[in-house]
Amino acid sequence: MKKLVAEFIGTLWLVLGGCGSAVLAAGYPELGIGFVGVAIAFGLTVVTMAYAIGHISGCHLNPAVSIGLWIGGRFDRKKLLPYIISQVLGGIAGAGILFLIVSGKSGFEIGGFAANGYGSHSPDGYGLFSALTTEIIMTFMFLIIILGATHPKAPKNFAGLAIGLGLTLIHLISIPVTNTSVNPARSTSQALFVGDWALDQLWLFWLAPIVGAILAGIVYKYISPNTK
What does the pLDDT profile of the chain (228 residues) look like in tens digits? Predict the structure, then answer.
């Protein structure tokens, strides 16, 4: 239960910190943080939580990460569903807090609410195929980074930094395409509040990250250095 609470809190922070920066600060006139600031914010949520709860739950914060670690032989299958449920609930809680904040502004309209999308809902108009490709490849690389950085033979105490910087780079590449998911819990949390098109397109942001994570788990298990 302590691990599940840690995953709940960590995913809440990821959504509140990352999506919160996008909704509240990215488009602020003249002083806004823009795409680069949002990318850094998502990376910082992972770095901070890696050192805060990594020793408790492993700091997955993402159903695709849990699935990729399981496929890679690093995570117990029995813990998979409870972790995913905790992550999704944590993401929804983070989005709920963000909604309470933004709805307090005069003339509030929810707009995109940092939801993930493709086609007319892609930040730069990228279609379904581009979105699918981007999310699969970005999640694949994210899991390769995670599996490599947390390997017993990797440099000690730097995994959180490598993973956070990896997520920052992923956002720098893919925000214009899909608003960057690589995380079904993050996508679900925002889609539930936006509804309509965001829920209609949510399938892609479950399917693509899971496919990318599974492929990464298989590949890294094959190339992984022998720990004996």
Answer: 899 999 999 999 999 999 999 999 987 877 889 999 999 999 999 999 999 999 999 999 999 999 999 999 999 999 999 999 999 999 999 999 999 999 998 888 898 999 999 999 999 999 999 999 999 999 999 999 999 999 988 888 899 999 999 999 999 999 999 999 999 999 999 999 999 999 999 999 999 999 999 999 999 999 987 754
Q: What is the DSSP letter of 156?
A: T
Residue 178 lies in a domain: yes
Whether 228 is in a domain gets the answer no
Show the domain range for 183: 2-223
Cα(139)–Cα(134) distance, rounded to whole angstroms? 8
**Number of domains comprising the chain:** 1
- Of 115, 89, 93, 101, which Cα lies nearest the Cα of 196? 115
Q: How far apart are alpha carbons 20 and 95 in whole angstroms?
A: 8
Please state, in angstroms and rounded to a whole number, the distance separating the CA atoms of residues 151 and 143. Answer: 12
Based on the number of CB atoms within 10 Å of its own CB, is 56 exposed (0-12), middle (13-18) or buried (19 or more)? middle
Handedness of CA 22, 25, 28, 34 (dihedral sign): negative
Angle at 183 between CA 181 and CA 188, to 5 degrees: 85
Nearest alpha carbon to residue 184 among 221, 212, 159, 160 = 212
CA 174 to chain centre: 12
Q: Let me know if residue 9 belongs to a domain.
A: yes
Residue 94: give its domain's CATH number. 1.20.1080.10
